[in-house]
Amino acid sequence: MKSRIFLTFFLLVQTSWAIGAEGGGMPQLNPESFSSQIFWLFVFFSLLLFSMHFFFLPKIKNIRFKRKETIDTYLSETKELNQKIEDLIKKMDEEFSSNKILFDKEIKKALEENKLNFDQKISSFDKELEKKKLDFGNDLMKAKEKIDKNIPKICMELSDQLYEKILGEKIRSNAKEFDEAIKDL
């Protein structure tokens, strides 16, 4: 165990002498180089800041400004187009409503005219039908009167023909005798 402790101590001492021989460890942590590191850090970040501020940021601002301007232009054009579309829709609705009212009036007028025309034709047809009915009734009455006048003559001729066929004799009937026979019935 003593040998192990001695070996560990020997290795630690030997590494510290080796480090001291190289110049004291990592050069970034050497306090002698801090001032040059700070100087170059300041120079690098200053150049980076100025290049960003005067070169990149103006380009980005210009792109952003143009983008915003383009978007605003498109938005305003879109609003104008939407307004025009709404105006057209409103105008079309108004025209549609007025035309619908106009067409409804014209259809109603045509319907009334056709109804009046139909009623007139029905009325004239009814008058013609009544006239024909009266004419037919008069013709029928005349035919009835004619038949009533001719019945005795027809009956006498028929009876003469029957008598001739049944008895074989030809006789002429008398109209007065026939009238008396009908009165008795």
In short:
The chain has helices at 2-22, 34-167, 175-184. With 185 residues, it is mainly α. The chain is rod-shaped.
Protein described:
This protein is mainly alpha-helical and 185 residues long. The chain has one domain (46-184). The protein is 89% helix and 0% strand. The chain has three helices and no strands. It has helices spanning 2-22, 34-167, 175-184. The longest helix has 134 residues, at 34-167. It is rod-shaped, with a radius of gyration of 68 Å. The termini are far apart. The relative contact order is 0.02.
How is the topology of this model organized?
Layout (H helix, E strand, L loop, with lengths): L1 H21 L11 H134 L7 H10 L1
What helical percentage do the residues reach?
Answer: over 70%
Relative strand content: under 5%
**SSE pattern, N- to C-terminal:** HHH
Instruction: Provide the number of structural domains.
Output: 1
Number of helices: 3
| Radius of gyration, whole Å | 68 Å
